[in-house]
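Action item from last week, closing it out:
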Amino acid sequence: MGLPPAGLEALDASDLDDSVAESTLRDIARTNALFGGHAALQYGVKQLARRLPATAPLTLLDVGAGSGAGMRRMRRVLGDRTYLTALDHHRTAARMCQRQGITSIVGDMWHLPMQANSFDIVVVNQVLHHVPRADVVRMVAYLNAMARLGVVIADLRRSPLAVAGFRVASRILRLHQVTRHDGQVSLRRGFTHSELKHIIDEAGIKDGLVHRRPGWRLVAYWRTCNENG
């Protein structure tokens, strides 16, 4: 298949062939497991969970859930008290989540089919770098308004070394050509620690924390002020 022009990701297109989308989503889950993506997410959820009620049921929305592998990690941290909902613009991703018993919604992250304060926790895992930089502050504020208790953002830390390392690793692992292409674009779209902290501050988030994690990852988390909203 033809790849998109440099700077664009094939997986961002909702009309990507289903078989290619599933192969790519499986590759993403695999690389997140190997190179720190899932661990970064789990770290952020654990930090937030320490500040949340210990036994009360929790509702969680994963925006851009992909294959659902990240949601399985969150359930390990939060336990069976957590009611998971996956949102992705790909029908293929929704089907992959549904196979695992996860409630799935096909939708646009800019037009979420629910009202503010609809979920206790909102997670944005390896997705924020897909948002145009001019809109990213507005997106963080929008997602913050959806969460009653807290938000976790896990994403890529931009580095030429990370791009070079992924280029080599993707060939060794025999990843799909779309994964190889999109992975390098994603790494170039990633954030520095200071950039992500500035975005969160500009969105009006108080006490948002950003941590560097292994595998060229960043994770941010915070309690919202929406519990009585």
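Closing note: The beta strands are 58-63, 82-88, 103-106, 119-125, 147-156, 209-213, 217-223.
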